[in-house]
Amino acid sequence: MPTPLLSRRDIDFLIFDWLRIDDLFARERFAEHSRETVTAVIDLAERLTEAEFLPHYKDADRDEPKLRADGVEVHPAVRAAVRAFSEAGLAAGPFDASLGGLQLPELVHTAVMAYSMAANVATTAYPMLSIGNSRLLSTFGTPAQIEAFVRPQVEGRALGTMCLSEPQAGSSLADIATRAEADGEGALGRRYRITGNKMWISGGDHDITDNIVHLVLAKIVGDDGKLPSGTAGISLFAVPKLLVEDGSAERNDISVAGLNHKMGYRGTANCLLNFGEGVRHRPGGRAGAVGYLVGEPGRGLAAMFHMMNEARIAIGLGAAALGYRAHRLSVDYARERRQGRPAGARAGSPVAIIDHPDVRRMLLAQKTYSEGALALVFYCARLIDEARTATDENTRAQALSCLEILTPVAKAWPSEWGLAANDLAIQIHGGYGYTRDFDVEQLYRDNRLNPIHEGTTGIQAIDLVGRKIRRSGDGALKLLSERVEATCRKAAAAGLSTQAQALTHDWVRIGDIAEDLLQRDHQVAIWNATHFLSAFGHAVVAWLWLDQAATLEPDADDLATARFAQAKRRCCRFFFETEVPKIATWLQLVADNSDVAAACPPEFFINE
Amino acid sequence: MPTPLLSRRDIDFLIFDWLRIDDLFARERFAEHSRETVTAVIDLAERLTEAEFLPHYKDADRDEPKLRADGVEVHPAVRAAVRAFSEAGLAAGPFDASLGGLQLPELVHTAVMAYSMAANVATTAYPMLSIGNSRLLSTFGTPAQIEAFVRPQVEGRALGTMCLSEPQAGSSLADIATRAEADGEGALGRRYRITGNKMWISGGDHDITDNIVHLVLAKIVGDDGKLPSGTAGISLFAVPKLLVEDGSAERNDISVAGLNHKMGYRGTANCLLNFGEGVRHRPGGRAGAVGYLVGEPGRGLAAMFHMMNEARIAIGLGAAALGYRAHRLSVDYARERRQGRPAGARAGSPVAIIDHPDVRRMLLAQKTYSEGALALVFYCARLIDEARTATDENTRAQALSCLEILTPVAKAWPSEWGLAANDLAIQIHGGYGYTRDFDVEQLYRDNRLNPIHEGTTGIQAIDLVGRKIRRSGDGALKLLSERVEATCRKAAAAGLSTQAQALTHDWVRIGDIAEDLLQRDHQVAIWNATHFLSAFGHAVVAWLWLDQAATLEPDADDLATARFAQAKRRCCRFFFETEVPKIATWLQLVADNSDVAAACPPEFFINE
Question: Which residues of B fall within a CB distance of 8 Å from A343?
């Protein structure tokens, strides 16, 4: 029997013991749920992803989506898996019952997606993007738009995408040039004709569902025929592949200009889409993709950021899940593979490589990175539930505040350190791990995307320093600090005072440096933002490790429970001994705020 | 015009100004050489690798070697390139004139290989392995063996391999099970029949040359029919694909059991070879691959280590070259790609991404990693020249001593940090860098092998701590420390006293900890060996950066010379500000020598 994708004991600990999901069942939105329903959903996710997502992991990597005359053809197993996911109701998890959704807590939906991503992150991209799309439309769309575009996605009859980037404008959305020209009004709201090119569109075309709902950022052409400049001119449009307003299912004016061939995530069709070419498809007899304005004109970016924050946490989840699975495969390999002897020994049989100290160091590093990353994302999911459904307003506001400052960390930390776990998995497997015969090779390639998309690590750092700390002041940081202090008190009482002291010390320093950052000129403040993100991220994960360790009971009577608790405590100790010392080094770099890189003359890089 | 593969100004600085190659021309072995001949050889390498190695970089990655009925077929451009390399005499660089070699200093040969590896590391593997094979045979073979097996390789009529690993024995050579049975004696020495499986054999079969000379580690069957245990029973054999002893060119009993499909290095045919199957080829009418004993029975591993040390430095060179090229591509991209605006600015045209502080930070990190790695390997090459040709014995012994302690660093540091430069290259390129349309994607995949083969980073750490420091005492470390002190004096005089003081401080600490390591029990000493290697490697590279910076004249009249010097000084400052602080963190981990990983109960990793 293959090793389960994730540790169910860990998942159950996170959800039930650590993040106390029971508290949610008393709330109206989750009144239909209980430990039993939640367990059943996670059981289902575990079974379905092992049966439908895992088996084609390598096949869909080898056999990439193909661009045919009439669109993109994906691997048949990808098609079957995404359909099975929908049919089982897993794509409907977080949605309202009125839309056919399960009204699951975000925490449970996150556990479902963790299994799916651990099994096959490229295949999961289709439902993941569709869920993000549907959430955005549910929040900002009209009832008619929700009925036309969200319901089919929840029911599995359509999938959705996010169309932000353009070839000339990746991270810089102010510079998008896609045009929207007014084209009347109908049941689905104000109609526009969209023209432009959208790059990096995952799930941009496929043959999994007939219809695809694209959410497109574009600029409405002004009376002077020009596009408004900057981000304030960006609007959001729902642009379906098949037009549904009149029931015609006519093809919209959208075509696939090409597929991107990536290092990993190869099962996901990643497209350059042309809107409004007017060559193959001319809805209503003329060029221009028909799109429906979602929300107010000029408010597109704000709406998209609503989705983006969720997407960023989802990226962090995928990165954590990929590192997590690689760790588990590494453990299996290290226990089976016999090679070498203990240092100094010259005779005797070869030992399992898990007996070599450096292999154990790598395994513990992986375990702390990947379990730490998963705990971080689950913690954020719990904050989302709290921000949405807590009974008093103050609790909701505080949860939202913590969530906002943690979002860049939840995106970047798993992307960097989950990937480090994947890198170590190759190293533990040695030459075998470098071959395509072993999943760890592909898990690494897949995860390498995560520090890039939905905002690179450098952009998360600027978001943290420039927006979350500088623009919002230190309110969120203070709220978070209170939570850290509470953990340190709990930890000290649980025999973990060494770690509690170390964390308290680092956290005070973070507060001092955040004060400094508030005083600095904006341009100067971000010089070493990435180092601040590194320090802050490690401090956050150290806090969550300490909180987990302090929650668990290492002296439980049940042997497996005690071992689980002791293993978590060992991870906590490892993280504090080996990783936490890096925090001071990074913080010193932020405190010094050297201009050595920022002010380096570009001509010093001239290639001669 | 494409950017040159490496900075010729940098190469010339390293060879002529920093490592003073002129001193070598006075020595008998290099009497035919001068600045002019050396320049001509490097010119040739630069031109030839750009023309013959670079153009098929992607093609040979896409179109991997194929296993046909009669052996392995490589991409035609690989075949042409390796032949052109030989025909130009570049594969003959380091060999004696009596064998048709150029008697080049190792330093110059290293520069030649740096260009070749930067252009196409997978294609370069064929001549690189052949050169290592020929060197080993030149040192340990009989004159007849040298004539039969080395001369054809130097002349480009054959290529060579190294056959060490077996499927069940990768890093642990004591456990190899390939058998050698006596089969008489002839002009090429004692003949044996070889039977066994050899894994990970790069260039194990191909259609570039007719003959292939395999150097195979095997154990001679004892009178009791058993194989000797441990490494002392390992012997070395030359096993040609075509038997040449009797001029018959009969096929030897060697077959390709399969090709390994790797993440990168795909242009190199990497084989599982079966020796002595007796199915397709039965030399002299019976099973068993014919091999000739090289050197003494039971001394095979010692001979192979002679080669292995050179191979390890060659791996470091490849890792440095791959990082170096990725940095140069990143500079080009960062200067061309326009995206975003300075922090705080909301209007104006997008700027080149090199204007963003975090991009400059990544570029400087890449530059210090890759130029630092290249300098380290060139420094080792200069030590090889010194160890072989210095006029007094003491100088030779000291150079050898320094070389031995630096070898694990020259292998591991470029592999880890050159790879980090490749990783940053993907990050700087954003989504584009993650596609196979850009070379940085492949450069990363290629370089990911280097921390694995020829001894993983963990094994280099054990070599450094367990063998180079513990077994040899601290003599080599003291010699190295004297060189570091000399650099610090020179640096202080050149206005770099901040850096000189920091390095002196770290180096004293390294000496203290090395003393500690000498006292510890062997098994305990290696618990945190990898952290010691990390610290020691960073300290070595910091020393070489400081030495380079102190050598250069930032106030030169010539503008380009001054800019080059200033850029190197900026790199030195960056490395000391940003990287050197990590040394203390790693050293503290070694000093504490926690058992948190080493003593972690394996059951804590059980997958449930």
Answer: 462, 466, 522-523, 525-526
In a domain, A515, yes or no: yes
- Highest mean pLDDT: which range of A127-136, A551-560, B227-236: A127-136
User: d(Cα B296, Cα A384) in Å, to the nearest integer?
Assistant: 71
| Continuous segment of H or E residues that includes residue B184 | strand B179-186
The residue among B434, B457, B566 with the most chain A CBs within 10 A of its CB, best to mutate, is: B434
Residue A435: per-residue pLDDT: 96
Query: Other C-beta atoms within 10 Å of A292: how many?
Result: 25
- The C-alpha atoms of residue A604 and residue A598 are separated, in whole angstroms, by 12
Q: Nearest-CA neighbor of A262 among B433, B227, B550, B576?
A: B433
How does the average pLDDT of chain B come out, rounded?
95
Percent of chain A scoring above 70 in pLDDT: 99
Element (H, E) at A123: helix A121-140
Q: What are the backbone angles phi and psi of residue B158, rounded to the nearest 5°?
A: -145, 165
Do the Cβ atoms of A582 and B577 come within 8 Å? no
pLDDT value at residue A84: 98
Q: Which residue of B has its CA nearest to A350?
A: B175
CATH of the domain at A222: 2.40.110.20
**Size of chain B, expressed as the number of residues it contains:** 608
Tell if the pTM clears 0.90, that is, is over it.
yes
Question: Which among A229, A449, A570 has the least Cβ separation from residue B604?
Answer: A570
Share of chain B above pLDDT 90, in %: 90
Contact A605 B435 (CB under 8 A): no
Q: Other CB atoms closer than 10 Å to residue A345's CB: what's the count?
A: 11
A217 or B306, which is more confident? A217
Q: Report yes or no on A175 lying in a domain.
A: yes
Average pLDDT of the segment spanning B253-265: 97
> Are B368 and B233 members of one domain?
no
Contacts of A198 in chain B (CB under 8 A): none
CB < 8 Å to B200, chain A: 431
Domain finish residue from B260, B279, B297 = B297
- Distance between CA A510 and CA A491 in Å, rounded? 20
Inter-chain CB proximity A427 and B332 less than 8 Å = no
Six-digit token string for A406: 């943690």
Contact B148, A318 (CB under 8 A): no
A607 falls within a domain: no
pLDDT at B564 over 70: yes
Could B453 and A431 be called an inter-chain contact, meaning their C-beta atoms sit closer than 8 Å?
yes
Where in the sequence is the domain holding B187, given as residue range(s)? 159-297
Same domain assignment for residues A164 and A219? yes
Q: Crossing angle for the helix pair A439-447 and A419-429, nearest 10 degrees?
A: 160
Torsion of CA A143, A148, A154, A160, to 10 degrees: -110
- Indicate whether B132 pLDDT > 80: yes
**CA–CA dist B77, B55 (Å, integer):** 9
Q: Do residues B226 and B189 share a domain?
A: yes
ipTM at complex level = 0.96
Tell me how crowded residue B291 is: count the other CB atoms within 10 A of its CB. 30
Are the CB atoms for B159 and B269 separated by under 8 Å? no
A–B interface: beta-carbon pairs under 8 A: 278
Contact indicator for A334, A359 with CB cutoff of 8 Å: yes
Domain identity same for B327 and B436: yes
Q: Give me the CATH number covering residue B553.
A: 1.20.120
Nearest-CB residue to B522 (from A3, A344, A360)? A344
